[in-house]
């Protein structure tokens, strides 16, 4: 990783290390790093139990942690020099890029810069070096979820999936068309420690935009760890069983308490391995007594639930927001990994301030599994766009036609944006259930 020291000689040192668990030599450094992340996101100071559990999960994910440390002495009484002034972490997980294909992605997370060191280029130093290193390591795509919409576009990241909050009236109006196709049983949430990753794997294989989940999710879904790091004993769970009798979906949920009116059940995690499991789990949720509304903060924007309801106005959404941001590092690798929905040949002129994707690329698909992508020099382009916009259209969730209307994508040949829309379409709407 490039060292911000290069820009400000002598000021900072970069350390990169694997998350260490209790008892190992690097534990204290990892623990100080976790505290720095909590500070950066205005969370509580973490106790030993939280740090131990968090680092064990980080180790399972094989996260690489980066800390930026001030060189030399720090003023008396201020945070010690071994607490990083900036943090950054990465891990590798598969991204479903449509038609069942998976592409290994570098997931960027836990980016913080202490307020007293901000706007001096520390983030820029960390992210540009990391993207370069990831590309050198053969990674074609990076991903993140952003705290603010204004930070990552300049580094070539574009919004590739969306999510929203939904509130569902589970009173007398709640009725879904059709009837249960499988069965739903209440279970001890602890079973999700084992079952959640297996069931999620079905979603990962079937859903464009899905990203392999980190260790934390099975702990969260099972109530083993709540947002404060303590076990969350309010968490309950139900399993869906398909025709073969095997669990193929689950929902974990928590009651918000008798002081919250209307009485509300909050979905902690809802993972359905089939369309039937999804609707059956909603039928179950809608049948829970003493509850007026169901709330889910990670609902898909294109949600079959609304279309399955006899009264679709039972569902009210709010806060539709960007979720997954992608950054294409290697155009030939990322584009040829995709399967395209149409036969066409399109030439894309891509601008990339960091250079990784810069150039004119010919995408040639016969609409069958294989597509070829090559760099061209002489040919005229059909579309001109920034690498961030290429990331936005990559999973079919953002239309190039919309981006052209916004003035972000330039059409250089007639209907080029529409042709791109047809090419990049995927078999079902992209949705990412994994926050990281
Ligand atoms: C993937 C994730 O983890 S998302 C979480 C991101 N972290 C947070 O939101 C925590 C609170 N914020 C922070 O810790 C910091 O302000 C950070 C990490 C967002 C930015 O770190 P800094 O070191 O100050 O950024 P840096 O100085 O490298 O800025 C690089 C560029 O981004 C711009 N920038 C940085 N932060 C922001 C922001 N919040 N909004 C808009 N622009 C920003 C800078 O102006 C600069 O622009 P330029 O290249 O045109 O001059």
UniProtKB/TrEMBL annotation:
According to its UniProt entry, this protein's organism is Paenarthrobacter ureafaciens
Question: Its family?
Answer: Belongs to the acetyltransferase Eis family.
This protein's UniProt keywords: Acyltransferase, Transferase
Keyword Acyltransferase recorded: yes
Single GO MF descriptor: aminoglycoside N-acetyltransferase activity
In the UniProt record, does the keyword Transferase occur? yes
An individual GO BP term: aminoglycoside antibiotic catabolic process
Q: Record's HAMAP family?
A: Eis
| Top-rank taxon, per record | Bacteria
Q: Which SUPFAM superfamilies match?
A: Acyl-CoA N-acyltransferases (Nat), SCP-like
Enhanced intracellular survival protein domain location is 331-429
According to UniProt, the name of this protein is GNAT family N-acetyltransferase
Query: Which residues does the annotation say bind acetyl-CoA?
Result: 111-113, 119-124, 147-148
Ranges for domain Eis-like acetyltransferase come to: 231-328
Q: Which residues form the active site?
A: 152 (proton donor), 436 (proton acceptor)
The record's listing under Pfam families reads: Acetyltransf_17, Acetyltransf_9, SCP2_2
> Subunit notes for this chain?
Homohexamer; trimer of dimers.
What InterPro entries is this protein classified in?
Acetyltransf_17 (IPR041380), Acetyltransferase_Eis (IPR051554), Acyl_CoA_acyltransferase (IPR016181), Eis_dom (IPR025559), NAcTrfase_Eis (IPR022902), SCP2_sterol-bd_dom_sf (IPR036527)
């Amino acid at each position: 990783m490039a060292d911000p020291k290069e820009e400000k000689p002598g000021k900072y040192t970069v350390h990169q290390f694997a998350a260490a668990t209790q008892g190992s030599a690097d534990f204290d450094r990892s623990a100080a790093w976790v505290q720095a992340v909590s500070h950066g996101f205005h969370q509580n100071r973490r106790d030993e139990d939280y740090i131990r559990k968090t680092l064990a999960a980080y180790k399972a994910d094989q996260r690489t942690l980066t800390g930026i440390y001030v060189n030399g002495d720090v003023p008396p009484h201020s945070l010690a020099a071994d607490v990083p002034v900036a943090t950054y972490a990465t891990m590798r997980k598969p991204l479903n890029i449509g038609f069942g294909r998976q592409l290994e992605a570098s997931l960027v997370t836990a980016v913080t810069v202490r307020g007293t060191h901000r706007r001096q280029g520390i983030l820029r130093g960390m992210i540009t070096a990391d993207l370069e290193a990831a590309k050198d390591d053969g990674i074609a795509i990076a991903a993140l979820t952003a705290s603010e919409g204004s930070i990552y576009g300049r580094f070539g990241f574009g919004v590739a999936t969306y999510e929203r909050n939904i509130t569902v009236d589970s009173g007398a109006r709640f009725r879904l068309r059709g009837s249960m196709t499988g069965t739903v049983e209440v279970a001890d949430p602890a079973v999700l420690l084992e079952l959640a990753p297996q069931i999620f794997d079905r979603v990962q294989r079937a859903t464009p935009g899905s990203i392999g989940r980190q260790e934390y999710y099975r702990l969260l879904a099972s109530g083993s760890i709540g947002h404060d790091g303590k076990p969350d004993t309010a968490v309950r769970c139900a399993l869906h069983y398909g025709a073969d009798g095997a669990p193929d979906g689950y929902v974990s949920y928590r009651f918000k308490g008798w002081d919250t009116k209307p009485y509300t059940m909050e979905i902690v995690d809802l993972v359905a391995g089939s369309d039937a499991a999804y609707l059956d789990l909603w039928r179950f949720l809608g049948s829970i007594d003493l509850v007026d509304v169901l709330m889910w903060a990670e609902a898909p924007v294109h949600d079959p639930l609304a279309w399955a309801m006899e009264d679709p106005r039972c569902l009210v959404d709010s806060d539709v927001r960007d979720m997954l941001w992608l950054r294409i590092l290697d155009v030939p690798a990322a584009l040829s990994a995709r399967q395209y929905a149409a036969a066409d040949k399109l030439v894309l002129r891509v601008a990339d301030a960091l250079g990784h994707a810069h150039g004119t690329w010919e995408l040639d698909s016969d609409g069958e599994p294989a597509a070829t992508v090559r760099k061209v020099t002489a040919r005229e382009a059909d579309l001109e766009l920034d690498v961030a916009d290429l990331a936005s259209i990559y999973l079919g969730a953002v239309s190039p036609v919309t981006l052209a209307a916004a003035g972000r994508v330039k059409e250089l040949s007639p209907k080029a944006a529409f042709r791109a829309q047809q090419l990049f379409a995927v078999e079902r709407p992209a949705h990412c259930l994994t926050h990281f």
